[in-house]
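Sorry to interrupt, but I need a hand with the structure work. Leave the record below and I will have a look:
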Amino acid sequence: MRHAARPGSRRRCGHCFASRPCLERAARPQGGGGGGMLATGTESLLRQAREVGAEELGRFCARVSALLQAEDWGPDALDALRRLFLIVAATKYSRRLEPTCVALLQTTLCSPRCPERLQLLCAAVLREMAPSDSLSLSCDHAQSSRQLGLVASVLLAQGDPQQVRTVGQCVIKVLESRQPEGPSLTYLLPVVSKVTSLAPDALPEEQTKALSKRLGEWLRYASVQQGAAHASGGFFSTPRARQPGPVTEVDGTVATDFFTVLSTGQRFTEDQRLNVQAFSMLRAWLLQGGPARPGAADADDRSELEGSTVSVLSAASAASHLLPPAEWLREKALEYCQRLLEQSGRRALRKADSDLQKACLVEAVLVLDVLCRQDPSFLYRALPCVRALRTRLCGDTACVRALLPIAQFFLHHGEAAAVDADAVCQHLFTRIPSEHFHSPMLAFEFVQFCRDHLVLFGSNLDLLRTSFPNLFKFLAWSSPALTSGFVALLPVLVDAGTAVEMLHLLLDLPSLTAALDLQLRASQAASERPLWDVSVRAPGCLEALRDPQAQGLFQHLLRAKASGTVERLTPLHQLLQPLASCARVLQCAQAVPTLLRAFFAAVTQFASGALASQLALLLLERSDSLFQVEGYEADVHRVLSSQFPALCKLHPPLVVERAKELLEFVGSLGGPRSTGHMLTSVVWAVGEYLSVSWDRRCSAEQISRFFEALEALLFEVTQSRPSAALPKCPPQVITVLMTTLTKLASRSQDLIPRVSLLLSKMRTLAQSPAVGPVHGEDDLGAVRTRATELLNLLKMPSVAQFVLTPSVEVSQPRYHRDCNTALPLALDMVSRLLEREAGLLPG
């Protein structure tokens, strides 16, 4: 990628952007190192491809058409098609190509003389254009199964249901042919899988049965001999030297049983490739088939009979061609999966084979689960294998992903198999997140497992809820990928018993990320540690991790289950501060506001008054106790400030119940903290709900105490001069303070003279030239307008009380806030009359 265009240099030539040498290299396979350079160069090329205009694209289409028209299928045509694919694939909207170019792409795709690589690119370009009105392709144009597979992929991309059925019929006819020397079928099975996923009823029952029969044959009766080597034609070549040998197991021993995807060899035969493809589509095909024997009498009685010794012996002879095709396929699928489970216990000689073993374990257990759900008689034949597999994998950290489908199997069949599914789930939720939180693939699959099986958890739902601290470790470490999943999970995870503890942990999520990072840095036993931000050095944090005084806080933050207790983690925040600039911590901090909104949306659906009061108090306490990450406190305060009034609306008496805490919060809001979002929402809630109409316990003494605290706060924020340490107070804070003080005065008539004097001073202050340079004219105008409106209302105390403290019956529709009703017009008219005839009114 060293020839990629430098930033800022955008060369344009006769053949447009797509003719540059850098695109030629981008389209070619890359090997070796330089992954970072490749990623950077590719992003640059994609950006340039998106900037190609319609005129430039038209010129390039003319060049491509000329090459294809002349059947010049050499390197120039290959490179041009690569660049054309990059252009049409780089944008999320469809590119419009010249009709001549589209027609030539289709002709080239169906030409029997065209090289395979060019046909692959033609099909890729045509798929990117889907849906297209200028398509004239048909499966009848294909000259081989390879061409048929490419043409079918283009037609299926159009999304036309009738076209899907036509493609399915054509492909099935080819698959039904049994000529041993016929066309290769390996190109067609993926098409069948796609057809059944797009239109499950696309294939008639007879064709479905026929294909089920063939799938069973490919699974069970593939050749156990390796594919023959191509003859070199040399003088010393002999037939004996070219004889294929038997396939081997992953541990190098000669295979003594039938061929599977885990069998190894130098070369493979056609039926062995079909064996691998059949297994890859097996689960989807079984799911399309539905339950077995819908007309069977009693599934429970049959299951009990099939579990007996007689049933097991008779099942051994059931693998005959006399079985119906669907049952035949299920029998062969069971044998295949049992063989895979046996092969997975062998010690692989190569890492690639070891990785394949793990993937096959997951798929085999999932297929067994489908088989047992469709036909309960399979349960007693599959259960010993799955049970032995779980025992073997519980201590094997390398195969931890396979424990998820095993847990799914026991959730589905634990009761019928007399297996304690609780113990399986307990191990799953206790150990895996704590030990493998840094595995992104496992994290995604674990969260998806929880989402997909919420109905199956049943009594285990409490286990899921109490395990949220462990699940949040996945979220803290891989927050960008898992945020949407946890937004969907939060309504299930949170309940009245865990809401307070969960909110604390959500607010501490960035510090949890830092603690997990620190835990990995301190771990000397991890053989494959994940990468972290090497630019951050944290030797002091590592020493703090071993400090006995900090151990308790670390253990609380890294706990596996809900403890029901809350710890003040401010000392821990200070210890973890050097890690606050880590990229992973910053990403986690950006996800927290979204998670908090989802949390409160769920909690407000069931929260009682007591819980709402607890959460409101928690918001006050945690507003100044957050992990100091760049921009984190401001983002969280925006969410908390919007949720505090919602909690007060849910339980209005909490303002009276938490009067002491609210007064302490207002009294502590001096200096820079007096400009935040939380202050505005708290002051508004006090003015809205500190009233006898919401709580009979509200007293004049309480109103007076709040009035004095807010009056002192208003004086402080208006008299302080802005500086670097003390930013300018927003006009919203000032106007909300004035409105709340007026509301309180309307409920305690003795306070009206004080608030009138205060409002007059505020109006005079807003008109002062000395304040102009500090606050903008718009801000001062808002303050003057609000002060004038409130003064006019206070001239008629009864009207002020009605407007500022309406009864519950009047306040529910909120007529005074609806600009489409007559009340705002009436208030505006009264205000104008009061201004014009002020001398005639008392006071």
